[in-house]
Fold this sequence. Notes:
The protein is of the alpha+beta class and about 170 residues long. It has seven helices and eight strands, in the order ββααβαβαβααββαβ.
Amino acid sequence: MLWLKEEPVGIAVFTSAPLSLAMRNRFFGMKGKWSRVRFQAMNRQIVMLSRVVIHPTYRGAGIAATFIRKSCESCSIPWIETLTQMGHINPFFEKAGFVRVSSKSNSNKKQRACTKNSLRSHTAIYGTPKHSVGKQHGKKTSILEETHRKSCFANPVYYIFDNRKNKT
């Protein structure tokens, strides 16, 4: 959290990295099947900066990049990644010390493949019926169709922050 006296000004939310991310796999040269040991190792090495919110009063004041950099430097994980659609418009992650790795390209073929089957596989990323995310009152659940449809057309930028020197 970022505070100005007793007023909350901003928040940075760090979460476990998603299990599969093609842009990360390319950056780190990860190939092959995933095992439980690989997932555990990844969780010790990579965290996702999944959300940054600055209070509307302070947006445009130039504090986001410094806030993000300081938040990342206080994290004990060696690598911090983020995906953002805003990376095409505002380079504040680069100003914060992140390196722009790549952007996901959406071909017409991929957009046409946005089907019920891809909805099921996309839902699997966020949890399976074995876990609470994939179950609600004993029923299987999935991400909303609207969320899925939007993700089919998203073109996020992948950024990575090398935090190895700040790891405690």
